[in-house]
Amino acid sequence: MKLSLYAGVATMALAAGMSHAAGHLDGQTITVAGPWLSPEAETIAEIFDIFAEQTGATVKYTGSDSLEQQVLIDAEAGSSANITVFPQPGLAADMASRGFLTPLADDTADWIRENYAAGQSWVDLGTYADQTGADNLYGMFFRVDLKSLVWYSPENFEDAGYDIPESMEDLKALSDQIVADGGTPWCIGLGSGGATGWPATDWVEDLMLRTQSPAVYDQWVSNEIPFTDPAVVAAIKEFGAFARNDAYVSGGAGAVASTDFRDSPKGLFSSPPQCYMHRQASFIPAFFPEGTEVGTDADFFYFPAYADKDLGSPVLGAGTLFAITNPSDAAQELVAFLRDPAAHEVWMQAGGFLTPHKGVDSAKFSSDTARRMNDILLNATTFRFDASDLMPGGVGAGSFWTGMVDYAGGKDAGEVASGIQDSWDALK
Amino acid sequence: MDNIAGSKSSLTWAVNLSVLVLVLLWLFPTVGLLVSSFRTSDQIATSGWWASLSSQERQNSAIRVAGEEVIVADGFEIRGSLFESAEVTVSKWGTSSRAPEAFDPDDVAELKNDWTLTVDGQGAFVMTSPTTLEGERLPRVFTTATAPPEWTIENYENILLDPKNSGGMAKAFFNTLTVTIPATIIPILVAAFAAYALAWMDFPGRALLIAAVVGLLVVPLQLALIPLLKFHNEIGIGKGYLGVWLAHTGFGLPLAIYLLRNYMVGLPRDIIENAKVDGATDFQIFTKIILPLSFPALASFAIFQFLWTWNDLLVALVFLIDATGDTTVMTKQIVELLGSKGGNWEILATAAFISIAVPLCVFFLMQKYLVRGLLAGSVK
């Protein structure tokens, strides 16, 4: 035991010795809690190293796979980290309303408006009511995921002579064509441990944006129209047209709910191909088989909109936001440091990172693929945030997930919708 | 059990058989985990662990032709092998996902741009082209092949030797010891005193106290997490080793007292009364007579408590691991190794085996006490 104490002291002394350059925050420690584990944790540590070099502060990052529970425990007990990185704005809003968050520096909102693409919407997504009901900017977005993507193997498409569909009508025609040729068009997997069901909520949100106007989508998110509204039920049924069609999904409709989302894209690369297309967010290449090169072995196209609906090209996304859970001047400075394009560029080079920051050097993206994704993000006519991340936790990270698992398992869409609405009413 | 009074049961074979079945049932998933820990993540994702025990014929994912091109008489040529292992036997191959079994070994496939490709039975390929292949996207080869079992110690190297992980693992290992050893000793000390008092000292309300301890056995510890942490913060302990020792002690005490009291109450009354007649104090009786006689029960509880605290994640997360991350324990470190999206199964399997190494040693060194202690109080 003594040995470990000595070892601990030695490590701390070493760490303190290494990271101290001259700076005005010398000797100060900032703790950060976030959802990223290996390998993202190493990238974020690199970014914090730049900050440490500039200011002399020591930044300690700890990642957790159960951050949603951990931040609540720490906040309740008063032992929060200085900064928490929230994967869901809904959770941050909840924390703000209970007085656990500290507003960001006054000029942050103006800076975001000017320097982020669609700046106002990022400000709105980071602004929540506090205990007294007054709105403040609490969250600064850093790292965005793009969800409206369909992944495929270009060579499998070439072998079969398929073209990339430009509209939802084409996409459905292509799916039918693949079935007619004896193949299976889609790989869909909803499994994700305690979060099982979330990939289906992304489908429904994407289809909602393709069948309804953005205004209706916003009303749905804020529950101004109930979950049982025909517009929402129709979007759920649209998802069913893909996921509940035995001929459309690899393994049949019964396998959708039980297949792990991390394993489902592997069907694209098996021999013979288990499926030709996989709709998933920009991070999914991390789960492609080892050695798969995005751009050669795998590629993506935009999940198209209906040609006859005139809703433009809507894009669904999500992102993580930095918020201060235990105030200190150094913590404010670390959030302000995220305005520096260098912070974004480190992660752009590491890959798997998109950003709405207009000031970054796009040549620093790790690949053309990432640059093309970022272009989709910057050129979207409509950008909407993942609805389930904005809904109250009990719905967006609860009944919506489980409801979609029930739906994929064969339950009626209307019944599922009214079940989700009931759970929402119960939270009000 | 032969020396127990009465005749040997004629149903011994049934007992033996059911023990064997139970043992196999328990070992089966463990063996699967062990086998998985020697496989790569792609192997785990594409086939079951039992498939890796023998040679299997299966359709492999596409492998892209790659290699240095050389200039030959009528153009350019690339030679190479699709597989690293020489023991693979190819039975069919193809270049299109629509027809992955189009060719037999040594057939020549005519591709676009007048390229030709041939693959032999061992996976060696020759590709020719009239023009240079520089900068071209080379074709993929689908194979149906029989491959011998393939194992890797990469996962263990990754966790134990990779500088990215090994530092954290070593630190977490010592942190875990720092948590488990005091968290095992403190409750035993307290519980032994309490158990003696509840078993052999007469005082008013003793029966009620015992009933209360038994009642505490059924209180789930999750109920006390947040209030206890708030209390720790208020009295200034905060998150740290002291807090987690106290928490483990508190959560372990009801069972410890119950187990030890039941054992001590079964000790012969005569010895204790003799000692009292000879003028021994309660403390002398406790240290000189009761403690040595209760060793099996103490040891068995120590094993239980050690295993629980070693495997504990929840209590450590709540009471120990703070935002600085310096007090990570093994279980937390393993969760982190799983990665942001939790997909690294090969790491999970490997880390599980690394983390059970110490509990296994403890168990095998002290297993005779475990069995004796399990019977504590149940056989009189």
Q: Can you describe this structure?
A:
- The complex is a heterodimer of chains A (428) and B (380).
- Chain A has helices spanning 2-18, 40-55, 67-77, 89-97, 108-115, 119-125, 154-160, 168-180, 198-211, 214-221, 230-243, 329-337, 341-350, 368-379, 387-390, 393-408, 413-427, and strands at 29-34, 58-63, 83-86, 127-129, 135-137, 140-146, 149-152, 277-279, 299-302, 314-324, 382-385.
- By secondary structure, chain A is an alpha/beta fold.
- Chain A has 2 domains: 18-145 and 319-380, D-Maltodextrin-Binding Protein, domain 2 (3-Layer(aba) Sandwich), CATH 3.40.190; 149-316 and 387-427, 3-Layer(aba) Sandwich (D-Maltodextrin-Binding Protein, domain 2), CATH 3.40.190.
- In chain A, strands 1, 2, 3, 6, 10 and 11 form a 6-stranded mixed β-sheet that branches. In chain A, strands 8-7-9 form a 3-stranded antiparallel β-sheet. In chain A, strands 4-5 form a two-stranded antiparallel ribbon.
- Chain A is globular.
- In chain B, the strands form 2 sheets. Chain B has a 5-stranded antiparallel β-sheet, with no helix packed on it. In chain B, strands 1, 2, 5 and 9 form a 4-stranded antiparallel β-sheet that branches.
- The longest helix of chain B has 38 residues, at 163-200.
- Chain B is 53% helix and 12% strand.
- Chain B is an alpha+beta fold and 380 residues long.
- Chain B is elongated, with a radius of gyration of 32 Å.
- Chain B has 3 domains: 12-54, no CATH class; 56-147, no CATH class; 157-374, MetI-like (MetI-like fold), CATH 1.10.3720.
- Classes of the chains: A alpha/beta (428), B alpha+beta (380).
Reconstruct the topology from this structure:
The complex is a heterodimer of chains A (428) and B (380).
Chain A: H1 2-18, E1 29-34, H2 40-55, E2 58-63, H3 67-77, E3 83-86, H4 89-97, H5 108-115, H6 119-125, E4 127-129, E5 135-137, E6 140-146, E7 149-152, H7 154-160, H8 168-180, H9 198-211, H10 214-221, H11 230-243, E8 277-279, E9 299-302, E10 314-324, H12 329-337, H13 341-350, H14 368-379, E11 382-385, H15 387-390, H16 393-408, H17 413-427
Parallel strand pairs in A: 1-2, 1-3, 10-11
Antiparallel strand pairs in A: 3-10, 4-5, 6-10, 7-8, 7-9
Helix pairs in contact in A: 2-13, 5-6, 9-11, 16-17
Chain B: H1 12-36, H2 41-46, E1 56-59, E2 63-64, E3 69-72, E4 75-81, E5 89-94, E6 108-110, E7 116-119, E8 124-129, E9 140-147, H3 154-160, H4 163-200, H5 206-216, H6 225-234, H7 241-264, H8 269-277, H9 282-293, H10 295-311, H11 314-319, H12 330-337, H13 345-355, H14 357-374
Antiparallel strand pairs in B: 1-9, 2-9, 3-4, 4-8, 5-9, 6-7, 7-8
Helix pairs in contact in B: 3-13, 4-7, 4-10, 4-12, 5-7, 7-10, 10-14, 12-13
